[in-house]
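Re: the request from the purification team.
They wanted to know what the chain is likely to look like in 3D before they choose a buffer screen. I agreed to run a prediction and write the result into the notebook, where they can find it.
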Amino acid sequence: MKVLVIGGGGREHALAWRLKQSAGVSEVFVAPGNAGTARDRQLTNLPITDKVALREWVQANGVELTVVGPEAPLAAGVVDEFRAHGLAIFGPTQKAAQLESSKAFSKAFMQRHGIPTAEYQAFTDPAQAHAYVDAKGAPIVVKADGLAAGKGVVVAMTAAEAHEAIDFMLLDNKLGVAHNEGGARVVIEEFLQGEEASFIVLCDGEHALALATSQDHKRLKDADQGPNTGGMGAYSPAPVVTPAVHQRAMDEVILPTLRGMKADGIPYTGFLYAGLMITPDGAVKTLEFNCRMGDPETQPIMMRLRSHFAQVLLAATRGELDRVQLDWDPRVALGVVMAAAGYPFDPRKGDAITGLPADEADRMVFHAGTAADGEAVRVSGGRVLCVTALAESVAQAQRRAYEVVDRIAFDGMQCRRDIGFRAL
């Protein structure tokens, strides 16, 4: 079986790495891929990003399964394009992907279907947004309504920070984000106290199958300081997701979401990521939905997955997830992101990367923002690498990952030194 993975980041490298190990898989293509997928002799990069060109290539080359990694192709309707021609593709349709591509759509959906989430209002008028912050006070959360590559959320601890975020996103639209009807819009919501966890499931429109639990680290610097990023590291499993919390997440968030999407005439298929806030009393509230696997959560999750992933996803495209079970390595997996100079606001590209090790079965360097330059590998994006290790404990996995981090070098590299601290 030939498999195509759409995307070029660390998530897609990890997905392709696991998919190539599935029984019956002969070739895995990654479009467009990165320097890491190019270095792997069992993966083939495909320099195509246009959805019609990808669909035509899949038809011409007998690809039996396509897996979509990032959000942008989903929001552009790649799943609709493939399905219109009878092709097996794992991901949500363009309408279903609004759960991520529009914060306002997502919040209204949750409110309509009784899914626990923070109180909110959506604004296109800066004056009204500023007045709302004045009325509610801080701390408060300001989100750009649209795809912002994980950087469209400001957790404002003061009213001044909230007002600055409104001007940045709405008045100046410095992020360049447009919501689904066009123009800039923000969602402002109450600040929730607790511990965050990433709850990711596979969906086939009717059924949901939970992946291993995970937790990421959004802030740039140690001890959760500095600006929010797309994620600076992650580990799996996440102790905060106890069996009771897991059950509540399924019963109160995931299954009502599947039922609600079906009732609204938009059946949901693909990866569904619920960012959850676990409050001190064990309640679960939904911070956001992503219509894809998280990055960097994918890297440790794929390290722990033992099942033949291609067969699992093929079953999902046929509506047969209820017939599938997943097998997990009981060890802990932990991934440390190495980011470019200037990340997250102005990442510098072009720096040469040295010290990259050979792949190991239980310790991998997944590439994200990298590009091949002859024999050299250079920085091409904000988050550059995710060094991921398996071990018997969080402390051991942390030590094994940082051993490799310390051997890799590029100018201006940024990384946290405390990934996994909440579980230690």
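For the purification team: Residues 56 and 92 are 20 Å apart (CA to CA).
Please add any questions underneath this entry.
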